Amino acid sequence: MSRERKPDFRDSHLVDDVPGLQSVMIHVLPKRTDCECYVSETFDVTDVLKYLEEKNKTHPEYRTTLFHCFITAVSRMIRERPKMNRYIKGRKMHERELVSLSFVAKRQFTDGADESLILYVPKDEDNLDSISYSLAGQVRERRKADDSEGDFDKTVNAFGKLPRLILMPIVAVVRWLDFWSLLPHAISDGDPNFSSCFLSNLGSVKCPSVYHHLNEYGTNSFFVTIGTIHKEKLIMDDGTEQIRDVVDVGAILDERIADGFYFSRSLKLVKYLFAHPEMLEIPLSTPSGYQYE
Asked: Is the separation of the CB atoms in 44 and 234 below 8 Å?
């Protein structure tokens, strides 16, 4: 990801060296929803859970969770695999200047409870500790507040109250502005549809990982769903069988920004970090040194 080039747009620059096949695909298959590549993976989280158990003994006032580990690992992966931070807009390839991740936090785990959308931009010096502390604080404040809505939630709710005959032309104008990357900050800032990756922690509500479509609106081209922790028999590298703690993960990518080979190798980096959880403590600006097979 380029850090020196001046952005062509407020959050990205245009990619000049797009291969011919991808350039053609952008026009033949102009919709993001027509180009979804879905991968279902099983992550062995036995080691990272043991790591978290010991880690949480040192700061009982807040808990570092498996979801925080996913956010940290995905943040590093996108930084080291810049094609994962690309998107198609206006039938052109863009690459973001920064990594951003978004997720939904429920105020209470009950039917009908309010949901709040949180967008997080990790900094160069961030690691698992700082990310966990920051996110735990944001979620805690949203759940304690009388008004749990963020600015984006308030904007959406205001639009949603408009009569249909007024809302329809407004949405048409918004989508036109979105196509040409001309949306004002008041509409797009804080919107998870404009993040590098949207993560859905379905395990927190006892649901398995599922396929979740991408949205045509916005710039989000990478969606991850995380299921529940459960036991499963795995064959280890030495050929032995062990009962391990695992999590099913579903990942969806717009295949126009990166091919399946690049996609699958990127997920291997996340798996590697979970097998070596101590690496989550390294600042994101420090390369992981992972050697791809």
From this structure: yes
Please identify which residue in the block is written with the tokens 């329809």: 168
Q: What share of the chain is helix, strand, coil (3-state, %, to 5)?
A: 40, 25, 40
When the candidates are 3.40.50.300, 3.30.300.10, 3.30.559.10, 3.20.20.450, the CATH number that belongs to 12-148+195-281 is: 3.30.559.10
Q: Alpha-carbon distance 199 to 79, whole Å? A: 16
Indicate the SS3 state at residue 27.
helix
128 touches 72 (CB < 8 A): yes
Local structure of 287: helix, strand or coil: coil
Cα Rg, the chain, nearest whole Å: 20
Per residue in 9-66, pLDDT (tens digit) is 678 999 988 988 889 999 999 999 999 999 999 999 999 999 999 999 988 778 899 9
Q: How many whole angstroms separate alpha carbon 192 and alpha carbon 198? A: 7
CA 91 to chain centre: 23
Structure tokens at 277: 């959880």
Q: CA torsion sign, 121 to 127 to 130 to 134?
A: positive
All structural domains of the chain with their residue ranges: 12-148+195-281
pLDDT tens, residue by residue, 177-232:
999 989 988 888 888 899 999 999 999 888 999 899 999 999 999 999 999 999 99
132 touches 68 (CB < 8 A): yes
246 phi, psi to nearest 5 deg: -135, 160
**In this structure, what DSSP letter does residue 198 have?**
E
